[in-house]
Amino acid sequence: MQNIHSNILATFNQTEAIPEIDPTAYIHPLAAVIGNVHLGKEVMVAPAASVRGDEGQPIWVGNGVNVQDGVVIHALETHVNGELVPEAVVEVEGNLYGVYISDRVSLAHQCQVHGPAKIGTDTFIGMQALVFRAEIGKNCVLEPKALVMGVNVPDGRYVPAGSVIRTQEDADNLPLITPDYALKGLNHAVVHVNVQLANGYRQKALEVISNNEEWSVAIPQAV
Known about the structure:
The chain has 2 helices and 24 strands. The protein is α/β, with parallel strands linked by helices.
């Protein structure tokens, strides 16, 4: 598949890797998944999204994640001439990643997660938000156009729309998500929708192929 392929060899990446894609994931033909990337179960990758594990790597995308239209997941070089760049990776359960996206995360339209970065489970990253050199906790919400850089956001916080969070003090003082927070249930709803989309589009693709019909699709097992 032209949109799903291995990386090239370079001084910053001396191993060629083919994306590891769970059979239940769906990747739209107009999205790109390249290099040392893991996509988990029921992941939905929408048109114009780019998941590129060719510079900073590996990139891990957990189960039930939705990577919406125009989203970019990328990372700074994690190796130089075969040597690890420690400040360019995040550690999760003893393993190192350029970017780590935990389970049931929503990456909304045109947001960017640029490694080194980690996103915790059940977190919503809003439209056109940017996460760079940062770790976002579990059950968080980044509202649209928020920028988070160089900090760790604690669990259960939200970042108001348009905010720029660049000091740990600001991150620690972010408001808690309370029962009356307007977007409290948003991520659950978005994940619910996109898991159905992934399953539905994938089933449609399999039906079209079995019937020898014309419909442009990407089938991960064929990579």
